[in-house]
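New to this. Explain the following:
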Amino acid sequence: MVWGLLPWFSLMIAGLVASVALLFWGHRSGQFADQERARYLPLRDEDLLQPLKRKGAMVHEVYVLAGLMAALAIVCAAALGVALFR
């Protein structure tokens, strides 16, 4: 009985680890720094897309996030496979 729940617990743990990692990444990269500006962003009628200043760092972040998404997709597929074929 416990072995049948193992894939689901591993999926929950992988989701928790990914969430905490993304939270720390957002805090470290300053995503939560300007809350006053973020409050009014939906009300603005401006083009908010600005050119990136740090292209080298952004490429690294994209690869890390793509790797996390691939790892989570593998864990989801494994949990689904175990659930369907047991």
Observations:
- Residues 59 and 65 are 10 Å apart (CA to CA).
- DSSP finds three helices and no strands in the chain.
- The radius of gyration is 18 Å.
- Residues 2-30+53-85 form one domain.
